[in-house]
Amino acid sequence: MKTMSKLLTAAALTSALISTTAHADTLEIGVLLPSPIADVGWSHALHEGINAVKEKHGDAVNVNVVENIQEGPDADRIMNKMVGDGNDFLLLGSFGYMNAGLKLAQRNPDKSFIHASGYKTADNFSPFTAKYYEGAYLMGMAAAEVTKTKKLGVVAAFAIPELISTINGFTLGARSIDPEITVDVIWINSWFDPAKAQDSAKALLAGGADVLFSNAQDTPSVVTVGEEGGAYVFNLNSSMKEYAPTKYLGVVKTDWAPFFVASVDAHLAGNFEGQNQWLGMTDDVVVVEDWSDDISDDMKAKIAAVQADIVSGARHVYDGPLVNQAGEEVIAAGVRLEDGAILGMDWHVEGVNSPLPK
Amino acid sequence: MVFRLVKREHASRWMLLVTPLLAVLLSILASSILLVILGKPVLLTMHSFFIAPFENFYSITEIFLKFGPLLLIAQALAVGFRAKVWNIGAEGQMIIGAICASAVPVYFVDSTSGWMLPTMAVLGALGGMAWAAIAAFLKTRFNANEILVTLMLSAIALQLLYYLLLGPWKDPMGFNFPQTVMFQNEALFAPLFSGVRLNTSIFIPIAFTLAVWLLMEKHFAGFTLEVGGQAPNAATYAGFSAKKAVWVSLLLAGFAAGIAGMSEVAGPIGQLQRSVTSGYGYAGIIVAYLGALHPIGIVFAAFFLAVLQIGGDVALVSADLPISAVQVFQGLLLIFYLSVYTLVNYRIQPARVEKAASTGLPS
């Protein structure tokens, strides 16, 4: 009997030991971000998403963030160091980390990678992007109601499909309410250049625009110009309402938490699968909120109806007929543009004045 | 109370040797204070900076990967600085070198010719030299200040790079993102060991160092170059040309920076993209001065700064240090070096003595 109890105690102790070892075996998560986390913007939104993972798993995960790292040979080395330091799950927060990140993933098949904005995939390497165009379409509807000049302006970073499709969605939304509306775009070729962004925003205002869209600018640069210049303004990723208290139209927010949590869970369960993750309002990743009080209840109801249709799949931003800048029909009525065509979009819809840089 | 710097008649040679070491110690001390204020662990940070880079093989090869371009650019800049030709624009010359070299794989995407890499090296060198030649021409013809010209040419080089990446050289399959195609293996230097990024391009800076050492220390041409730049009148009298000093200094720097730019795109990067220089063009200036403008001193200085940069990356990850702290550390180093150097070579005197000593003051 005594032996029995001894055995039992030993067994209990062993299991206790095993469970503590399991606890001590925390998942190290490495996060590499292209700009400072700051209070708003792209890196901030990614960081919020990873915070949700931390909140869910508590001490079972440990997050190691390195911010403000430009793409290039140094980013490559830092990623390598993160993996060398024992990070088993990596979040790479910029398009420019793609090639180096992919190589690293192929060398480390037991680690999982999620990569923002890219297009290359491996078994343990998932690129992720948001369907910003869904939210931008709704913003376009709101912009159509508040504009008097019927001219809208966009300050945009790089002419990559992600941003082109966002501008097209915005234009389609606005013209669904008022077909006379036109959109001007200035490409500044930077995610992070407050001075240039502000100059461009002022140029758009001078050209008659009275609604501004800060497309993928990581600072409140354009937003503050809108407030000072008396133009409505909205942006992506995280709310900047405090920078435009009276003229803030709303935000097309990205809430990465659901996707990040699901990815980390998959990694912990051992079934992480690298695939292109293209996430929108249906996935609760693209969220539209902080609406301006100047939008009428009537329009709010219209927007809510369209939003419900997009979420249910009854409606798609890129349902035909779609006409390009040259006036040619690209997609006929009743046809829906394929995902691949949106992911590789290199043309503007009718209503966008500015030519696309090629 | 106004003070004035007066050159010491007998600056201690021994002190000149100690200057860089003293600068390093002082910057370690100053950054330790900053770290304490930041609330970061001082010992762990110093470990990250100075010991961690040597802890594994990969990391050691990364030191040499950075050592190469730093050494190459600093050696060439030092030759110019000794002749008092202030080329601040190695960054731009490096960008143009990278651009010219990239033309080969961009226009011959499918080529598997063994001539690709040599052609890229030649184009890279010529590109860097051509860019530096603009400053040399403006200096010798119109006496335009080369500090301003080379610095501004760097800004122009960057815009040219952006233009090419956003326009004609953009990867057609790259979803409009500003970068070229990935280069084929024939356009890349072979890695020295499998699994590392250190490649055969490391031999270029070493050979270049040897050449510069022979030129400056063992050859009369080095002497005429130095005199030509430092004392143009005396040089002309002795039959050396001040203009030649300007041309040789700038072309040499353009050559080295161009090759360095080529080695980056044909090495660790493997394509032309928006950031190709890693700041080597500017860091090279620090290295040149830290190495007391001497070919052998520069070897140590380049190695030291490479360690510091790799260590900085380690500190980002392991000691949770912000990237600006790394840059502050490097900036402190230069400031302390210049301060110590000045105090070793000059005395501080109250300004009243000025009148008496004015004729003997350095210009």
Describe the protein.
The complex is a heterodimer of chains A (358) and B (363). Chain A has two domains: 17-130 and 256-279, 3-Layer(aba) Sandwich (Rossmann fold); 132-253 and 286-343, Response regulator (Rossmann fold, 3-Layer(aba) Sandwich), CATH 3.40.50. Chain A is built from eleven helices and 14 strands. Chain A has helices at 2-24, 42-57, 73-84, 98-107, 132-146, 161-177, 194-206, 221-229, 257-269, 297-312, 339-343; strands spanning 27-32, 61-66, 89-92, 112-116, 125-130, 151-156, 182-187, 211-215, 232-237, 248-254, 277-279, 286-289, 322-323, 329-331. In chain A, α5 (132-146) runs antiparallel to α10 (297-312). Chain A is globular. Chain B is mainly alpha-helical. Chain B folds into two domains: 1-40 and 334-363, no CATH class; 43-320, ABC transporter involved in vitamin B12 uptake, BtuC (Orthogonal Bundle), CATH 1.10.3470. Helix content of chain B is 68%, strand content 3%. In chain B, strands 1-2 form a two-stranded antiparallel ribbon. Chain B is globular, with a radius of gyration of 22 Å. Chain A binds chain B through residues 30, 64, 66-74, 76-78, 80-82, 84-85, 95-96, 99, 107, 119, 158-161, 164, 189, 344, 346, 357-358, and chain B through 56, 58, 62, 65, 162, 166-167, 175-179, 182, 195, 197, 264, 268-271, 273-276, 278, 310, 313-314, 316-318, 320, 322-324.
